Amino acid sequence: MLGLAIEIPYWGQSLLRVLGGIVAVLLPAGTIVYLFLFKMMSFMQSRLGPMEAGPYGSMQLFAEVGKWLQKEDIAPEAADVRIFKMAPIIVLVSTFLLVAVVPFGPDAYFTNFEVGVFYALAVGSVSVIGILIAGWASANKYSLLGGLRAAGQLIAYELPMVLAVVGVVIQAGTMNLQGIVVAQNTGEIFGFAGIGFPFVITQFVGFIIFMIAVQAELTQAPFDMPIAESELVSGYMTEYSGFRFLMFFIGEFATAGVFAFIASVLFLGGWGIPFAWFGWEGLADVPNWMNVAGPLIMFAKMLLLTFIIMWVRFSYPRFREDQLQTFAWKILIPVSLLNIAVTAIIKVAV
Amino acid sequence: MSLFLRDYLTVVWFGLAAVLLAGLLLGVSAAIRPSRPSYDKQIAYESGVDPVGMGWSQSQIRYYVFALLFVIFDVEAVFIFPWAANIERYGVFGLVVMLAFIVLLLDGLVYAWKRGLLRWV
Question: Least packed by Cβ within 10 Å: which of A7, A210, A257, A276?
């Protein structure tokens, strides 16, 4: 947005960024819910899914939002009402803060932190606070158990996620997300630059660990112990109704989209196409049309990754709570540390 | 204002935008939704039976050891990242030192594991 020919004042830039951010949060969330949660899930279960609202049920999302807008907003009498009402907003805010770090093109970024990886990983865990206080403030045993389980799960899977990214940082030599994109698209594999050098090739272990951790952070099945409907009704969301419930719901799927954006930046080459195709040397040579093509490329990669997340969600049964913790601490963390060691040794030796 | 701080200001705008969006939608919702509170609606939901005791019941928090381990490893990660970004500058010396650091911290995990602290039940 800085590379435009017209000079835009600061408030205009900020407004454009915020509007872009709202699109970058809501568009993936809507797409994921309609395409995967409504339609793909139905087809996998041999049914049609929503068909009434619009052609193939394509207006179903608007019907749902309209429905939730009209629902009564009920807070339990015993609840800590002010905190109870604040919790979904915190979850939504954390999603917005997370999307602020994702680059969508050579100039189409919201923020360009030198330590973007740090920022993403730090802000990514803010939603835990919202979930924990939602569980606590509801004054309901199901909610409390769900909130505690969610907190236990999120801290257990935060670590593998953080450690899996170290391998990428070692290879890219920078923590700037824009720099990581450039490093992947200017790279070459044994002198062949035709596909760049997406880090998923060498960091495949890290990629798998990252995606498993994302699955757990989003509390999607098989890691949906905190909202296990057969034992906890709906976990920390049990007492929520109306639009506040929908905000948790939007937050969940918007965060899925944003984490998929981050995963595609870290492992799949982000917004870029291999720079060798057009003979670009570095970021400065990338022409302006990539600011339009970049978001589309990112969106396609986001759809691919969220498809995998949803596919796993619909396919696997739920982990037991102790299996879930054991898996994180005894398998994922040692493996990700080993991954760091191997990557570092190869990087220094070669 | 410097560009560095402007990036952080953008983050503030994003947070405010989220709050505004939520407030706007909740405001629309408040304008069109019914509000007929009753005692029955406001008791805690326990699968249809009357709630037993307080909602804030005591339960065993099993994961405080996990929380401690988490803090240790998270701090470790903070130290690993700056090295990872500059790995070629530090070379073999940095590699050996950092691997020793990781092994030392892994030692803590192995200790907790052998003590049986990583069991949830």
Answer: A7
Which residues have a Cβ under 8 Å from the Cβ of B65 and sit 6 or more positions away? B112, B117, B118
Closest-approach residue (CA) in chain A for B107: A334
Q: Which of A25, A159, A331 to mutate: most B Cβ within 10 Å? A: A159
A–B interface: beta-carbon pairs under 8 A: 210
* Contact check, Cβ <8 Å, B44/A337: no
The residues spanned by each domain of chain B are 3-114
H helices of chain B, in order, are 3-32, 39-42, 64-85, 87-114
Asked if residue B31 lies in contact with residue A69, where contact means CB atoms within 8 angstroms, the answer is: no
Distance from CA of A25 to the nearest CA of B (A): 10
What residues in B contact A226, CB-CB < 8 Å?
none
Q: Which of A143, A87, A230, A85 is CA-nearest to residue B59?
A: A143
Q: In this complex, is the C-beta atom of A64 within 8 Å of any C-beta atom belonging to chain B? A: no
pLDDT for residue B66 is more than 80:
no
Flag whether residue A142 sits within 8 Å of chain B, measured between CB atoms: yes
- Which among A292, A169, A149 has a CA at the least distance from the CA of A216? A149
Per-residue model confidence as pLDDT tens digits over A2-23: 445 567 777 877 888 888 888 8
CA distance A283 to chain B (A): 18
Tens of pLDDT along A273-325? 888 788 787 787 888 888 888 889 999 999 999 999 999 988 888 888 778 88
Nearest residue to A117 (alpha-carbon basis) of A163, A153, A154, A156 = A163
Q: What SS3 state is found at A189?
A: strand
Give residue A261's pLDDT.
92
Q: Give the model confidence (pLDDT) of A144-166 as tens digits.
A: 888 888 888 888 888 898 889 98
pLDDT band at B57 (very low <50, low <70, confident <90, very high): low
Q: Do A145 and B102 touch (CB under 8 A)?
A: no
* CB-based contact A158 B80, cutoff 8 Å: no
Residue type, A130: G
**Residue A162 to residue A123: CA distance in whole angstroms:** 12
Taking 50 as the threshold, does the pLDDT of residue A242 lie above it? Answer: yes
Angle between helices A242-267 and A60-69 (to 10 degrees): 140
Q: Which residues of A touch B39 (CB under 8 A)?
A: 77
Percent with pLDDT over 70 in chain A: 98
Of A139 and A331, more confident: A331
